[in-house]
Amino acid sequence: MPFDRRQFLGLGALSLLAAPTAAANAPVEGRHRARALGITIGRLPPGPLNAITDVAGVEVGHTTLISGHGKLEIGVGPVRTGVTAIWPQRDIVHEFLPCGVDVPNGNGEFSGMLAARNLGILSSPICLTTTSSVGMVHDALQKLQPDDELPPGTPVVGETWDDFLNDTVGRHVREQHVFDALSAARGGPVAEGSVGGGTGMMCYEFKGGIGTASRVIEQGGSQHTVGVLVQANHGTRELLRIDGVPVGTELGRQGQAEQRAELNSILMIIATDAPLLAHQLQRLARRATHGLARTGSISNNSSGDFTLAFSTANRIPRESFYRGAGYTLQSVEQFHIRPYFEAASEAVEESIINALCMAEDMTGINDNFLPALPLTETLEILRRHGRLKGAVDG
Amino acid sequence: MAEPALFRTIDMPFCQAVQFEHWNAAPGRFFVAVRTRGAFTAMLGNGVVEEFRTLSGPVLLAPASALGGIYDAGLRLADARSLDAQIDQGWPPLTIGIDVTAPARPADWIALFLDAIRQQKSAGTPPWQNKVRAARVADYRLQRLHCHVDGKQAATIIATDAPLLPQQLQRLADRGDAPVSLAVSLGNRLPRVDAGEMQQLTAVSEQTLALLVASARRLVSA
After folding, report:
1. Any chain B CB within 8 A of the CB of A170?
2. Of A24, A60, A102, A224, most Cβ neighbours within 10 A?
3. Do B50 and A302 touch (CB under 8 A)?
4. What is the C-alpha to C-alpha distance for residues A22 and A376, in angstroms, rounded to an integer?
5. What is residue A265's three-state secondary structure?
6. How confident is residue B83, by pLDDT bands cut at 50, 70 and 90?
């Protein structure tokens, strides 16, 4: 079946380059990131790209699959899905990184949790995709692992459910799409919105998808970055809050029927170049929930909300991890960890808002329509509440 | 050996399904507890099990390197049950990896998998071995499935018809010393769909639980 594949520099990425706009009462043309619209989340400064790729060595790529229109025909389409790949560092299968996980609500799939909990390491690229493609993506990632006498690493793949727009049962993500996303991964700006694993996702009953943000921390003469990427597919309309303002309630349903949004989920990936150990990264991962909550989520009973945090500061050679005399690690002293918690929660919050701001209207299976967050009305609400600042780059 | 009464295994060359009730039974859930040890990491579906402490379908055992494919076959089993059902009703397939070389799978292996489950008939032998042992404690039965690869422990599943709550089951699962141990109670069958705000459950006393735990320990070491 032919696919319209829009890799990396899709429409969402081009919007990064658009001129910011936040003039009072002026209609907003196109899609823009939160800061470009004058929405400033938190108080810490973002990195140069305000993206997970501000953490050196982290690369992101998407394979976006969009094809077909109209009535659902299982195995044919319409297709609104994809896969997002994150390289924590390119040699992750040979040099492991410390990582930690947290699960605000576990009604989902996120492989690699046991590796994080039992071993405290990340040994695979991370892929985010649709629910029915977890197994296939898992096995594709398994093929990247070295084939020698040492234990293979554990593939890391998470899912959220795009069944409102996508032919999920048709399993349109194929092994090659995983490898394409991995190959397309780059540092630099990250495409957001309806791309990669986020293509068919719904967030607070608006079009959701991929979002990213970062924060920079300076203390004791050193500077570190915390970057976040989310696949946002969670929340009911009335709960949405932006920068503390109940935007979802004030926007109302605008004629849109209530969706089964309580079944949906979010995946949150946190990267940092600060030397945090696995147990510290687990604590950092837990702080993602605070950022998620500030956008209004309560982690519904049927949500699969998972967070994985990793640090690029300590690379653990696979050989040393499994045998030999051991290895050394650097670590942030626990009394200095608080700024990282703030950075993680702020960056998660802004990543979710970026996903909403960058995603465009989408029509999927059976002509199901999911509107994008209406930016003009949203900015007007924020302005009324005194929460709109001057637009800035990034 | 007589067919185990508390679970049934459907064997295939590339996996093994451990069923606690008919694959197409009305959606229901049983309480489950999991214990992993050491460097074990090869499991899918454990997020949901950790969150809800329940199980909704067969446990699938698979060569660790084929974990994703077998998990996906389990998802297709849920599709086969009813495409109209919400994905939750047959999800997730708790899939446990066994440290063994994966045999080559035929091109139509997913159809073979689904047929074997539908017909409730084994279609080959997995590349590991099983031992099944049973015991009776008071009014309750315990059965243990011990999977090993040439004598090396791989996984243990303890099933009981005693109505154990999740924290009680955990004490059974903790008795297992395989890389991964499961304990499943068939004593309370919970609805998978919303059947009202309240449900009534039963549980055993600490005295009975102590007997069950002691019996589980003997089964594991047998």
Report:
1. no
2. A60
3. no
4. 9
5. strand
6. low
Residue A281 pLDDT exceeds 60: yes
Is A106 in Cβ contact with B48 (below 8 Å)?
Answer: yes
Considering the domain delimited by B8-221, tell me its CATH architecture.
Answer: 4-Layer Sandwich (3.60)
Biggest CA–CA distance in chain A, Å, is: 66
pLDDT in tens, B162-215: 999 888 899 999 988 899 999 999 999 988 776 676 777 888 888 888 999 999
Facing A114 at nearest CB: one of B46, B66, B79:
B46
d(CA A115, CA A153): 8
Contacts of B208 (CB under 8 A, 6+ apart): B137, B138, B140, B162
Contacts of A101 (CB under 8 A, 6+ apart): A110, A112, A113, A116, A117, A282, A285, A306, A307, A308, A309
The encoded tokens of residue B152 equal 């090396």
Q: Confirm whether A303 is a catalytic residue.
A: yes
**Number of alpha carbons in the 13 Å side-chain half-sphere of residue A73:** 8
Whether A67 sits among the annotated catalytic residues: the reply is no
Rounded distance, CA B154 to CA B137, Å? Answer: 26
CA distance A72 to chain B (A): 13
Tell me what ipTM this predicted complex has. Answer: 0.81
Among the partner residues B51, B70, B87, nearest to A161 by beta-carbon distance: B87
What are residue B59's phi and psi, to 5 degrees?
-85, 130
What global pTM score does this model have? 0.89
Q: What is the dihedral of CA A252, A254, A256, A260, to 10 degrees?
A: -10
- What are the φ/ψ torsions at residue A214 (nearest 5 degrees)? -150, 165
Under DSSP, the state recorded for A388 is: B
Q: Mean pLDDT over residues A311-321, rounded?
A: 93
Interface check B115 vs A, CB under 8 A: no
| Dihedral of alpha carbons B1, B3, B4, B8, sign | positive
Average pLDDT rounded to a whole number, residues A206-212 = 97
Provide, rounded to the nearest whole percent, the portion of chain A with pLDDT above 90: 79
What is the C-alpha separation between B155 and B148, in angstroms, rounded?
7
**Do A113 and B47 lie within an 8 Å CB cutoff?**
yes
In CATH terms, the fold of domain A4-384 is L-amino peptidase D-ALA esterase/amidase (3.60.70)
pLDDT, mean over chain B: 89
pLDDT of res. A394: 54
Integer angstrom CA distances of residue A174 from A153, A191, A198:
21, 21, 16
In sequence order, which residues have a C-beta less than 8 Å from that of residue A287 and are 6 or more positions away?
A340, A341, A342, A344, A345, A348
DSSP B133: E
Beta-strand pair A265-272/B54-55: unpaired
In chain A, the percentage of residues whose pLDDT exceeds 70 is 91
Question: Is there a contact between B47 and A163 if contact means CB atoms under 8 Å apart?
Answer: no
A183 is catalytic: no
- Interface check for A14 against chain B (CB to CB < 8 A): the answer is no
Tokens of A8: 């990396």
The domain limits of chain A are 4-384
Q: What type of residue sits at position A46? A: P
For chain A, the first-to-last Cα distance in angstroms comes to: 38
B161: three-class secondary structure by DSSP: coil
Rounded CA-CA distance A280/A387 in Å is: 33
